[in-house]
Design goal:
Structural class: mainly alpha
Number of helices: 14
Keywords: Membrane, Transmembrane, Transmembrane helix
Subcellular location: Membrane
Strand content: under 5%
Organism: Gymnopilus junonius (Spectacular rustgill mushroom)
Pfam families: MFS_1
Helix content: over 70%
Low-confidence stretches: 281-304
Shape: globular
Distance between the termini: 41 Å
Radius of gyration: 21 Å
Family: Belongs to the major facilitator superfamily. Monocarboxylate porter (TC 2.A.1.13) family.
Length: about 325
């Protein structure tokens, strides 16, 4: 973040914020999830939900904090430096208190013979990865474009600055409450309705042309989309049939690897398909069914709907298979 304080060229931001922070955050985020999953067998989803909810909580604090700092005499540069040193302190504490419960593996083959090859032969798990990939391909588009959508529809500029903050605040509860329910009803039984509801809420965005409408969308979408983000990793436990929890690390790593490409390409594709016309107000159903509008109209939100609904369909297809494998409806 220190490199962001005095950027002189675009490639500096790309290398530091895109490549550098991407690698660093990935190396911290994935181990924190895996280590947490090793300590819990009964309340695993709830525990991992609290880990993921921290990012939403930060999404509430940081925009407000930085806006206040930037508007004062500190300015942009010292505001970024201050946040960078604050992050450093938190990360040092987090890394010092994390402890692994299981001993490190001496090879890629664990005590039960689980390897990348055996995981890749697990068809239901691969379908789950595909489903989550499709969901994550479009689920974050509202987080990036809600402010633009609100501004183009005449929503107060002061409010639009806090639209994402409201969504992140709702996501704090969305990343904990559904996970709590997942421990009782099963992660897949929660992630499927969450995906369908999130997709349906996007249709409501076309009617959100006021402060009240944008606020309601931000609250509900932040909650249900937060459930998708937080349950994606705990749901991997539904595919583990043996007792060795070290298999979770391989599976969560493979899931995260695929999601990296979804997050890398989803938002840029949506932005390119949105075009300069930005015809958000035209009904999506009318554009898709009747083919009256130009193909470029509403294509961004159409892509979002297709990917989220497509991911939901993949989850529904594997639901029966995993239920038969586990011998229980709690999957």
């Amino acid at each position: 973040m220190l490199s962001l304080a005095e950027p002189h060229h675009y490639y500096q931001n790309l290398l530091s914020q895109g490549v550098g922070m991407g690698i660093g955050m990935g190396m911290m985020f994935l181990p924190s999830l895996t280590i947490t999953s090793h300590y819990f067998r009964v309340k695993r989803s709830t525990a991992m939900g609290f880990v993921v909810a921290g990012s939403s909580f930060g999404g509430v604090i940081y925009p407000v904090l930085l806006n206040n700092i930037f508007q004062r005499s500190s300015g942009f540069q010292w505001g970024v430096r201050g946040v960078a040193f604050m992050d450093l302190g938190f990360l040092v504490i987090a890394n010092l208190i994390m402890r692994t419960r299981l001993p490190p593996k001496k090879s890629l083959v664990d005590g039960n013979g689980a390897t990348f090859k055996t995981v890749l032969s697990d068809i239901p798990f691969l379908m789950y990865v595909l489903g989550v990939f499709l969901i994550f391909w479009g689920i974050f588009v509202p987080f990036f474009y809600l402010q633009l959508y609100a501004a183009l529809h005449g929503v107060n500029a002061t409010f639009t600055n806090y639209a994402i903050t409201i969504m992140n605040a709702s996501s704090v509860f969305g990343r904990t409450v559904p996970n709590f329910l997942a421990d009782f009803y099963g992660p897949l039984n929660i992630i499927i309705p969450s995906a369908i509801i999130s997709a349906g809420l996007i249709f409501g965005l076309f009617g959100a042309t006021s402060i009240a409408g944008v606020t309601l969308f931000a609250i509900f979408y932040g909650f249900f989309s937060g459930g998708l983000v937080s349950i994606a990793a705990p749901a991997v436990g539904s595919f583990v049939t043996h007792r060795d929890l070290s298999d979770l690390g391989i599976r969560i790593g493979m899931l995260s690897f695929s999601l990296a490409f979804a997050l890398l390409t989803g938002n840029p594709i949506a932005g390119a398909l949105l075009t300069a016309d930005r015809l958000w107000h035209r009904p999506l159903i009318f554009a898709a069914v009747t083919n009256v509008l130009s193909p470029k109209d509403n294509t961004s939100l159409m892509l979002l709907q297709v990917t989220v609904f497509g991911g939901s369909a993949c989850h529904l297809l594997i639901w029966k298979s995993i239920r038969q494998r586990r011998g229980s409806s709690k999957i």
